[in-house]
């Protein structure tokens, strides 16, 4: 085992630690870690990220369910259109993206570059949601028509399918604003959507990619250990302050990715 691989496994522990501490955001670290440290191309990295995020979120769902913070009915209503979109995106859309995405004069935007730039843009959105102080608004009992939930699920599913992240930072505000679920319950409910979407999306990759199962299972196992450690440490650390600090870190990382890919 060389130094880079050891650092990769340390990174896996950090991914789980962040998930355990603040309940999300760890998946945002997985793709850059796999691409820039371990040298995987973005398509493989986003596929591996889906597996890591999906498996980790399964443990998170169980923990939230024990506290009564998972609305399975609403979660499954969002999950159906989302997991269909994620699967089709990973099975057909991502493999179908041309290797040269855009060429203009001396500038060429490749498929790998396009995926990483799009990923960085989503990271900026995620960082904003972490930095901004959200005040929970009073909710009505009226729920939106299902066709709106269906469309929203498809859109978010395509986005998460392309970037290989769980999309919890997109589902939480969607559940709060559109499904009228309280913030704490929205966080727990988003985990069941992330679990289903990520693992089914990964199934689309299994059919098109060669998976290094030994590495992936070890990486995922270490991430899960990090989650338990993070949950333990969260009793002593302010999650609110940590989340905002992590948001600024994600913003810096997103800026670096855009610079590195487009320079």
Automatic annotation (TrEMBL):
Question: Would you tell me the protein name for this molecule?
Answer: Probable membrane transporter protein
Q: Subcellular localization, per the record?
A: Cell membrane; Membrane
Give the primary localization class: membrane
Q: How is this protein positioned relative to the membrane? A: Multi-pass membrane protein
Q: Where are the transmembrane segments?
A: 7-37, 43-62, 74-93, 113-131, 151-174, 213-233, 245-262
Q: Which keywords has UniProt assigned to this entry?
A: Cell membrane, Membrane, Transmembrane, Transmembrane helix
Give the species this sequence originates from. Answer: Jejuia pallidilutea
Q: Which InterPro entries match?
A: TM_pro_TauE-like, TSUP/Inactive_protease-like
